[in-house]
Write a structure and sequence with these properties.
This protein has about 800 residues and is an alpha+beta fold. It has 30 helices and 25 strands. An eight-stranded mixed β-sheet has the order 15-14-13-12-11-10-23-24. Strands 16-17-18-19-20-21-22-25 form an eight-stranded mixed β-sheet. The chain has a five-stranded mixed β-barrel with strand order 1-3-5-7-6. Strand 23 and strand 24 form a beta hairpin. Helix 1 runs parallel beside helix 3, helix 5 packs antiparallel against helix 6 and helix 21 packs across helix 23. It is globular. It starts with a helix and ends with a strand. The mean pLDDT is about 85.
């Protein structure tokens, strides 16, 4: 192991302490122990220092962002219309019809509240020609950045802290004050020109892919995005080292050939070194033009280091080039380890340099040219994918075996045809006929790649299911990799002639299995009732683990007019982390979008045994998404249950807990507001119970009190209607008499939830409460006697 590379990896990995403060240091020490005899003591000491400094820098960045986010929330409050002065600080990107960029505010006013200068805000809107450095004034609708904080999903602040954006919103009116004049401004205007030419000349079905390939903009449809990820072909549309090889190395080589032909200049000079010097800024400029993703910058700095070595006439060492790119990435971004594109690029490069070199001779065994090319493609694909497996497992529930073959067939069209043609197309606008021809060829190649992606994704059943790795499992795999890299090809033998590799592999496999069993036991507990109120912002979502292992999902959040889907962003990742692929009972408390918006995506990905619906939405209409939800569930054989099926007036056994449905009984009242037709039921396990109220307001609360106030008694109350003043009357709260109340509301909500009158009612009754906009997710666990409450962050309101 190169000492320089070891220290740079240590600097990169120290940031992981923010995510796993106990496991990461242990894994790091084990990895260093593996290299103890392969590197000098000074390198080990330097690695320890780099790791500690990295952990400190990352923690400081995250803590600073938490504080800035809290201050911004306190100052802004609910979303407001603001008049601001700002400057563009990132390259604008276009997705659909929305231009997105990050701006730095210089000042302004938000409905009487001043705007804090230097705040960073993500905005959508503005003219297509917008560029970095442009200073503008405008009217924007601003709100605090929406962050889902759920204990099962780790700390979300780690990714948000990288961009330091605390506010987001839409541009309502825009006036350019002064255009930017820097080099980066001109690059962005060139990007806008190339984007416009792609949209004008490429086939409509290929525009999104061409923009991804050339500009690094993800403008794929949801179906296309899923197909490329599911087929393992997403890397073909990502700006990576391959792009730099085609775009930069080709230009550098062309320059070298040109310089050689200028005899007066080339005489006595090494034109390769001169051309390499030109390649250094070219690589960096191209990475910026191509969107500046983590993978693009890492590859650019690695290529710049390579050119730098050539320029100095020194011998190239690949590991040092990789290490240099890591140092630059870490110095620029202390949280680079949480940039997935950066880490995938590093993993793929490492695989090609290690596994690819080790297996490269396999193609030499074949004499037929076609067979040799096929084996070479398979070796390159497998060697780059193997180190990426750990990261890819966090994205998809399975690893597609067909993806290896798909890459072999799609890569020639994507990398050999589409990539150089699309890059060349950006230079051809002065020659319309040539430009149109390039667009035609590029579109054709991209559509072939797209067809392969959809076909491979449809064969997803060939894939190997993989659970999302836990932090402990990731640490074990990293330690194993370190041992194998450290020992290399040594054939140390243990007792009775057993080679050490098999001992290490067996120990690793046993550790992974034990950790997986632990993860599954946590995700599917038995003998307890566990209720998790998920943070889905302004909406409701709750997972209920029943004592016999069955699972219940109550609502899944949702936003009107927003592409953010809490089902995909929160519920499905939590289910996958808990190793759950079946929901025994799915409940829609009432047919409002902030409760059913995320259910459709969940119903499409996991099986559902029963669906409890009040029936009001189907009778009176609740929109197309609600209809698609019902259709999807019926097509998949889910059993529907209505109030008339569940309103028995008594407790019934549900997975070892006792359930009593209290409303809407005997059926939903026709024509009534859906809030007051919410499912209301109590779950009891032993001496403890939880009352779910949906969005029930005073009218339904009065009916429940009149029907059987004693049946409302519970230890935990899910407060109705997000803490609205129209719910949780003092009389109703007195009947429930809870020790804890949870309020599902969002820090970005414009309704004023929870209202002060509701909080005063809870405080007057001496009820502790957790409002999810402060606490994040809330998990309540009981064995029937004790009640354990955990929140994402300690923020219980006290009476």
């Amino acid at each position: 192991m190169n000492a320089y590379l070891l220290v740079s990896l240590s600097a990169l990995c120290g940031a992981l302490c923010c995510a796993s403060p106990l496991i990461t240091p242990v894994a790091f020490v084990l990895c260093l122990a593996a290299f103890w005899r392969r590197v000098r003591v000074g390198a080990i000491a330097a690695s320890l220092v780099a790791f500690a400094v990295s952990a400190y820098r990352a923690e400081a960045r995250v803590d600073g962002y938490r504080e800035a986010h809290a201050v911004a929330r306190a100052e802004l409050g609910p979303p407001k219309r603001c008049v601001v002065s700002a400057s563009v600080v990132t390259s604008p990107t276009l997705r659909g019809d929305a231009l997105g960029f990050i701006a730095e505010l210089h000042g302004g006013d938000c409905e009487g509240a001043p705007v804090r200068p230097d705040s960073r805000v993500r905005l959508y809107g503005g003219p297509p020609s917008l560029a970095r450095g442009d200073r503008f004034e405008g009217i924007v609708q601003l709100g605090i950045v929406r962050i889902f904080r759920n204990e099962d999903l780790g700390d979300p602040y780690l990714s948000y802290a990288r961009g330091e954006v605390t506010l987001s919103g839409a541009v309502l009116a825009f006036e350019l004050d002064s255009p930017g004049r820097s080099l980066f401004s001109h690059i962005d205007r060139l990007r806008a020109h190339v984007r416009a030419r792609i949209q004008t000349t490429f086939a409509p079905a290929a525009v999104g892919m061409a923009k991804a390939l050339v500009l690094g903009e993800n403008d794929l449809t949801d179906e296309e995005d899923q197909a490329f990820k599911g087929s393992g072909l997403a890397h073909l549309l990502a700006v990576s080292g391959t792009h730099l090889v085609f775009a930069v190395v080709a230009l550098v080589e062309a320059l070298r050939q040109l310089l050689i032909r200028i005899q007066a200049f080339a005489a006595g000079r090494n034109m390769g070194r001169w051309a390499a010097g030109f390649g250094i800024p070219l690589a960096l400029l191209y990475a910026d033009f191509a969107g500046g993703s983590g993978s693009a910058w890492r590859a650019a700095w690695m290529l710049a280091a390579t050119f730098g070595v050539r320029c100095l006439g020194r011998e190239l060492v690949a590991s040092r080039a990789v290490a240099s790119s890591l140092w630059v990435g870490w110095l620029y971004d202390p949280l680079a380890a949480f940039d997935l594109s950066f880490m995938l690029s590093l993993a793929a490069t490492s695989g090609l340099l290690t596994v690819g070199r080790a297996w490269g001779h396999l193609a030499d065994r074949f004499s037929h040219r076609g067979a040799k090319l096929f084996v070479t493609g398979v070796v390159a694909t497998v060697s780059s994918m193997l180190p990426c497996a750990l990261f890819l497992a966090t994205l998809a529930p399975s690893v597609s075996l067909i993806g290896i073959i798909a890459n072999v067939f799609a890569a020639p069209f994507g990398e050999v045809i589409a990539l150089p043609v699309c890059l060349s197309h950006a230079l051809m606008s002065p020659w319309p006929a040539l430009e149109s021809g390039a667009a035609l060829v590029g579109s054709g190649a991209l559509l072939v790649v797209k067809r392969v992606a959809f076909l491979s994704d449809s064969l997803g059943w060939i894939g190997i299911p993989v659970p999302k790795p836990t932090a402990a499992q990731a640490a074990v795999l990293c330690a194993l990799t370190a041992v194998f890299v450290a020992v290399g090809r040594q054939r140390a033998v243990w007792l009775r002639g057993v080679e050490w590799r098999w001992v290490v592999l067996a120990g690793t496999a046993a550790s992974l299995v034990a950790l997986e069993l632990h993860a599954r036991a946590f995700g599917n507990p038995h003998g307890v009732l566990r209720v998790t109120m998920l943070d889905v912002e302004q909406g409701d979502a709750a997972l209920v683990d029943l004592p016999d292992g069955r699972l219940m999902l109550i609502d899944a959040g949702g936003f009107v007019g927003s592409p953010v889907n809490p089902g995909e962003r929160v519920v499905l990742p939590v289910l996958r982390g808990r190793r759950r692929d079946h929901i025994d009972v799915m409940v829609l408390s009432h047919p409002h979008p902030d409760h059913f918006g995320g259910l459709l995506s969940v119903a499409e990905k996991v099986s559902v045994g029963e669906f409890w619906d009040t029936g009001q939405g189907e009778r009176e209409g609740a929109g197309p998404e609600y209809r698609r939800l019902l259709q999807t569930l019926r097509e998949r054989g889910t059993v529907f249950k209505r109030p008339e099926d569940l309103c028995s007036g008594r407790e019934v056994d549900l997975g070892g807990a006792w359930l009593r449905v209290l409303g809407p009984c005997p059926r939903a009242v026709p024509g009534r507001n859906a809030n007051d037709n919410s499912w209301v039921f109590r779950l009891r396990y032993g001496e403890r119970s939880v009352l779910f109220t949906g969005d029930a307001e005073h009218e339904q609360e009065q009916e429940l009190l009149a029907a059987d106030r004693d049946a409302l008694r519970a230890d935990v109350l899910k407060v109705g209607h997000h803490g609205s003043r129209t719910s949780t009357s003092p009389e109703f709260l007195n009947a429930v008499n809870p020790s804890l109340a949870t309020i599902s509301c969002g820090m970005r909500n414009s309704y004023g939830h929870p209202h002060a009158v509701t909080l005063e009612t809870l405080e007057h009754a001496s009820v502790e409460y957790a409002r999810l906009d402060d606490s994040g997710s809330v998990r309540v666990t009981t064995d029937g006697t004790q009640l354990d409450v955990q929140t994402f962050q300690a923020a219980l309101g006290s009476p």
